[in-house]
Amino acid sequence: MSDNDIAIKVGNLGKRYVINHQKDKGDDNFREVIIGGTKKIIGVFNPFKKSEKQKETTEDFWALNDVNFEIKKGDKVGIIGRNGAGKSTLLKVLSRITEPTTGKIHINGRIASLLEVGTGFHPELTGRENIYLNGAILGMSRKEIKAKFDEIVAFAEVDKFLDTPVKRYSSGMYVRLAFSVAAHLEPEILVVDEVLAVGDVEFQKKCLGKMKDVSDQGRTVLFVSHNMNAIEQLCDHVILMSEGKVIKKSNNVREVIHDYLAFNENGISQSEWKNKDDQYKDKNFHLTSFCVKDNEGAAVTQAVRNDEVFSVEIKGYIEELDKALQVGYALYDEDNNLLYWSIFNDSAEKEWPEVKKGLNVFCSDIPKRFLNEGTYRLELIISLYFRCWIIEPQKNSPTIFFTIQGGLSDSPYWMIRRPGTLAPELKWSVK
Amino acid sequence: MTENNKFEFTIESGKAERHYWMDLWRYRELFYILAWRDIAVQYKQAIMGVLWALIRPLLTMIIFVVIFGKIAKLPSEGVPYPVFVFAAMLPWTFFATAFASSGNSLIGNASLISKVYFPRLIIPAASIIVALVDFIISFTILIALMVWYNYLPTWHMLTLPLFLLLGFFAAFGAGLFIAALNVKYRDFKFIIPFVVQLGLYASPVAFSTTLVPEKYQLFYYLNPMVAVIDGFRWAISGGNTAINSTEIIVSVGVVCLLCLFGAIYFRKTEKTFADVI
Fold first, then answer.
1. Contact call for B44 and A17, based on CB within 8 A
2. How far is B250 from chain A (nearest CA, A)?
3. HSE (CB half, 13 Å, CA atoms) of A234?
């Protein structure tokens, strides 16, 4: 009888990818492309020709490893974890886009997945045509779409442009229409991946509202997001993933999110991050380390006092200078509130520190008696101004932490932590 | 509760086969809509629209008539050369477009494949429907030609759909293979136009099958389009051109094998499409 209450049951689930490390990437000239191509074709038809292939070394990578959990009907489950933790792979396996390597998933109910809004939209087709196309792709029948058509159009606010090809839509209209179709799906289990990251603030609110409606109707929702506030608002359960494993499943959403933000995977708040695995390779900025240093230049290992100046240090290797390079950090408090962004060239142009080719060490002081007692989190901001992200906070950035304790003030009346994120000591006068 | 049970299923590595054929039926509406999308997109921004489906085969036919009919003076088994060529051009053009579009269909729909689940077999199947529509449109040229040369259709004409079906499955089987291979090895993208171009001359479009030396005939029949083209000619000319049962049997056999192994290979590689595309 309890089996009937379970919407999704996952046991011993694993997904392996084989990564090829090709020794030579000689696709530079046309001849090599042809030769490489011919070799490949011969390779396909000749199963005995192994010697050519052995030059490529392969490596197994388990994107999901021994994942087990159960989701009851009507649960709203948020899945959180850092980039590469396996969240998206899990959703892909659940929605049957890709097959698991090991294990079993039992699904009870009609499942629909929303891994990206506007999947299958065709730019040449009109809004009306795309509603039918997209609906069918998401698994709605023509009858269902017809019945909901007016509702979809009204929600997307595109009624004037129904017969215009969507390639002439503004990006806002496009996204609204896409989300609207998806929002009117009525599956028993809905799987959603980061769709709220689109559109303007107003529309995001509307989407959140719609998601809430969906979940209030008693459907099961699985929701992957980096937006912790959305998870907290929508979900009553949370699954924390790391390195392809479920490390925590709880109905105390607040606590799990709090722990997730305050600690790294090993449960320690580290104040130093070193690029050991050669990640973030980029010719404009190849990050080597990111840490918090005390006033003597040593990496911070324990709590710093609030009456000490300490600094954030970002080290990176620049192969190609780009004037638009932005290097900085974002500072968050324990509740994931963003305090500020700071970039090395925030000041007037003539005061900018000079960036050179080769190794650069970016350093910035955090003034004393500015923050409050507590734990803070730092993430990197590295981008080419308005062109592209190299490292984006809350997306692919490494995180480091520091804790401030003691040294709040020299005043005998300010001995213990005051409420507030900041605790600056400001000048007063009495006239 | 009974409604729910319909959707209860288990995902397990390597055990997808059971649902697959059921799903294919369940997703039939997606098949219609993808086919309709391909047709709509094909004709949307072309001013001449449908006319293209007429102009292309018509121009090719004229070139063939001039080069092979007038200059090379190839025999046409007593049928007016334009009718002779066009009766072959129809099924060949159908095969070529169907094969090319199904072979490239998976890559063209990469974003769909990596974002939503549905039986992937739908994609190459739906893409052939466009070629079928083109075929129907250019069929009107044939009718015009027959009127012009005073050719009355006979009962033989009724067998035409059977030969079309044979051509359809020839394109589908070959298309499945290439589509699946194309996902992993993009080289096949370059092979498709080559096969289509070479095939035009390897198939009896400009000439009659009877011109092929006797001892090579059986080997020649391995090209499944030989029987399809000969069948079209036979049906259109009212039985005036040659066709024999051997070529039909060989062709049906080859097409069956193509479809069988095409489908097996497609199914085998299908589960990795989303990972490698």
1. no
2. 24
3. 29
pTM, 2 dp: 0.72
Q: Quote the pLDDT of residue A219.
A: 85
Q: Decide if B168 is inside a domain.
A: yes
Tens digits of residue pLDDT in A323-336 = 889 999 999 988 78
Residue B269 has pLDDT above 80, yes or no: yes
Q: Do B11 and A138 touch (CB under 8 A)?
A: no
User: Of the ranges A55-59, A90-94, A269-273, B245-249, which one carries the lowest mean pLDDT score?
Assistant: A55-59
Residue B136 has a CB neighbour count (10 Å cut-off) of 11
Cα A325 to Cα A283, B144, B212, distances in angstroms: 11, 67, 69
pLDDT at residue B7, as a whole number:
61
> Which CATH number does the domain A63-110+187-262 belong to among 3.30.200.20, 3.40.50.300, 3.40.720.10, 3.40.50.11260?
3.40.50.300
Instruction: Parse chain A into domains and list their residue ranges.
Output: 63-110+187-262, 272-404
pLDDT in tens, A367-413: 988 999 888 889 999 999 888 888 988 878 888 888 888 888 888 88
Distance from CA of A133 to the nearest CA of B (A): 6
Residue B2 lies in a domain: no
Cβ-defined contact of B275 to A98 (cutoff 8 Å): yes
Separation of alpha carbons A369 and A307, rounded Å: 6
Q: Tell how strand A310-318 and strand A358-366 pair up.
A: antiparallel
* pLDDT tens string B196-243: 999 988 999 888 888 888 888 888 999 999 999 999 999 988 888 888
Query: Where in the sequence is the domain holding B237, given as residue range(s)?
Result: 42-276
Q: Which residues of B touch A138 (CB under 8 A)?
A: 116
Nearest to B94 by CA among B233, B229, B262: B229
Q: How close does chain B come to A106, measured CA to CA in Å?
A: 4
Structure tokens at A126: 């009109």
Helix (H, G, I), strand (E, B) or coil at A180: helix
Query: What is the rounded average pLDDT for all residues in chain A?
Result: 82
**Chain B residues with beta carbon closer than 8 angstroms to that of A120:** 111-112, 115-116
Residue B23 lies in a domain: no
A contact test, residue of B1, B2, B12 with most A CBs within 10 A:
B12
Q: Which of the residue ranges A116-130, A173-187, A201-215 would you say has the lowest mean pLDDT?
A: A201-215
Residues on chain A bordering chain B, Cβ-to-Cβ distance under 8 angstroms:
4, 17, 37, 40-41, 44, 92-111, 113, 115-116, 119-120, 122, 124-125, 129, 132-133, 136-139, 141-142, 165, 188
Contacts B44 to A, Cβ<8 Å? 124-125, 165
Question: Given this model, what pLDDT does residue A52 score?
Answer: 46
CA distance B46 to chain A (A): 11
For residue B9, the chain A residue with the least C-alpha distance is A107
CA distance A61 to chain B (A): 13
Q: Is the model's pLDDT at A206 over the cut of 80?
A: no
Beta carbons of A137 and B112 less than 8 Å apart: yes
Residue A236, judged by CB atoms within 10 A of its CB (0-12, 13-18, 19+), counts as: middle
Average the pLDDT over B123-148 and give the result.
Answer: 91
Q: How confident is the model at residue B31 (pLDDT cuts 50, 70, 90)?
A: very high
CATH number of A272-404: 2.70.50.60
- Say how many domains are in chain B: 1
* Angle, vertex CA A269, rays to CA A373 and CA A370, nearest 5: 25
**CA dihedral over A176, A178, A179, A181, signed as positive or negative:** positive
On chain B, the residues whose CB falls within 8 A of the CB of A105 are 10-12
